[in-house]
Every structure is written in structure tokens, then in C-alpha cells.
Amino acid sequence: MTFNECGSGCGPFSCDNLPSDNCPQICHAGCFCLEGLVKDQDGGDRCIPLNHCQAFLAVRLVDGSNEAEGRVEIQYNGVWGTICDDSWGITDANVVCRMLGFPGASGAPGSAQFGEGTGPIQLDDVFCSGYEQTIFDCEHPAFGVHNCNHFEDAGVVCISSAGVDVRLVGGSNEAEGRIEIQHNGVWGTICDDSWDINDANVVCRMLGFQGASGALGSARFGQGTGPIQLDDVGCSGCEQTIFDCAHPPFGAHDCYHRQDAGVVCIASAGTDVRLAGGSNAAEGRVEVKYNGVWGTICDDGWDINDANVVCRMLGFQSASSAPGLAQFGQGTGPIQLDDVWCSGDEETIFECVHPPLGVHTCHHREDAGVVCITLAG
């Protein structure tokens, strides 16, 4: 029997014991599936595309002391196996943990910390950015290609949703303070090593604020007394929680409480944006209100991405230009923002990267403006 007579999904096999009209559809014991296809074990013996068959791409944790930790095992083509710990890190572990319903990972142990597996080593040299939906979306060599032994099996320690929380302490109001995070029931602080506005934005949004106006270190809001839970946090600013950001394992640090990190968050009620000095409602000098006071934005680094964010905040489609040099006249209030950097996807200008509000090296002759595009034209 020829290949075509056996159907597009199956390899050649004998159909002597099968009704001829089923031969193109069914792959029984004598049949093998072509490359890129697998047998649908949940729905008979048909060959189906591999990427449509979730049962053949799955993840589980094995041999941990609880459901939130263990050796990472992945199922590929119906066979469970392990991941080698070459280049295994917290960003890889974060992806695995989120696949399993946890908010993130607190550790990415290697060296078969949770025992050695017995199946094949399915993946090696995995590299995740941390934003992938599954471990299979991360960069990696072909399945089964490795130079490892099972004493290098990778594991994860996931963060239980019930075991993490964030609060601000020591501030003059609810929108500022020393950051304290709860991990496994214990409150502690974050070290200010590499702490910046991207990290602060994530924390503030976790707490329901619009974003952050400052990312302070050196225990500006006083020193904590619990353990230092996190150090060297690296957020892009887009993460949903601080635990999704790149960081060493919980408790790993080289800091003292005099380096405790803090934030100043932006309360939605305390910020606003308007255009002034233009010839119509769609253009003008950008003015932002912070804590009840209207002021301007310096044009240092000001570009079309920043202007797009402002225009969308005001209900316009986007921006056609981002003029500087006080093209719409000089403002009279304080210069509220300088060195603003937006990717263009932010919902508000306050979510963009910027120094603390009020910090600048400018004059009003550098006031930034926008020309917005209306939906009608």
C-alpha cells in the first residue's frame, strides 16, 4: 500500500484487517505518525498536530516537600523527562511556576536538589526572558539534545499565592513608604541595589496606584527589622507583580537595612494631564498636575512615543509630533517631569520611566508639547 492511500497523517502500514474507508483516517498498531504529528491518545488513534495536543506538552513538579516545589519534569511526545540545569535561572523558574498557577518562583535550584529523574533529559540550555507563557516558548535546543546527566536535573521553588504580599511602611501617607514583602508568612524588606523607577512602578501598581513618582533607597523611610527578602530586583516595568521580576532567590543578599528600598506612588486622584497654549484642543504645551499643582514637562528626551501616551490619555488616537522648546509658550508652574522615556504602550505618562517628580535640569524655554491626531482626521 502506498503512502497516499494511508492518509496524510499516517505513515505506510498494512490495512489488511481494517475497513478500507477507515484507512486514511485511523492509525492503529502498525502505523507511525509523520514528523510533527503525534497519536491523539485522548481521542482514538488518529495522528494530530503536536502543537494542538496539550497532553504531549505538559509540566509537573516531582519529589518536593509540597506542591509548590520539586524537580521539573516535562512531557514530550507522551514521555516524561527532566530539564538540565545548564543556564537554569530564576526567569526560567518563573515561567514554570506561572504555568502551574503560582505567581512566580523564589528559587531555581539545580544539581538534582529534588533527586534525580529516571526518564530522558528532554531540555538543556533553556533561556527564558521571563515573559513567556510556557517553558516551551523559551529559547532551547531541540528536544532531547543535551550534554548532561541526571545529577544536573533542574528544579523550582514556587511562590504560593497565599504566602506573598506587599505593603508600604513608614511613609507620611498611604502612597509612600518602605517596601515590605511577605514571604512564607514573614515580612521583610527589599535591598536598594539596582532599585529604580521600573521596580517602583510595579510595586505601586500592585497596590492599586497609577504608578510611581520615585524609587528611593538608603532607608529613606526608616530601616526595617525583619529579614531582607529580595536584592538586585530587575523589573522591565511591565510585570504584574514584583515577584515576576528577575531576582536572586528569596533571602539571598549582601545588604544591610540601611539600604532598604522605598517608593513614592502616584495616587490617581492626585495626577492629571492637560494641554495649554495651543490653537485647538488637540495641541499644546503638556501640563501635568501632581498633588494639586499644575506644572510642565521638560523636553529632554521627549519624542513621539511620549507624545502618543499623552494624546491617548486625553482621548485622542495618537500623536503626529512631539515639539519641544516651548513651541506652545512657556509655562509658569513648576517643571514636574524631565527625561521622560515611554515605550509608547503605557496607559499614562506617569507609568513611563522618569526621575522623581520635580527633579530636573531645565528651564521653561524647554517645555514639551504635543500635536494629537483626532479620530476624525
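Second entry:
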Amino acid sequence: MAEEKKMTKEEIISAIESMSVLELSELVKELEDKFGVSAAAPAMAMPMMPG
């Protein structure tokens, strides 16, 4: 079996730069599904009111 070549960070960034917005959206969805994470920004906690 042939050994797979690992991409460098620079190669990954270059590949992402060449993708369309639709391709990037699909990539994000696939990464979220694969790793069980969300790319959404966390909600900011409201400060407690003095009282």
C-alpha cells in the first residue's frame, strides 16, 4: 500500500484559498460533522447586574 503524503499547513491554506465560498461552506459542514464541533461563535455571557 502506498504511503500517503501529509499536507503541510501552508499547503492546506493554499488549497483553502483556491476554494469557492460554496466549497468552503461544504468543507466547514463536513468538518463539523466529522469532529462533532460547531464553527459558530459562542454566545457572550451577560454580566450580572449589581443588586
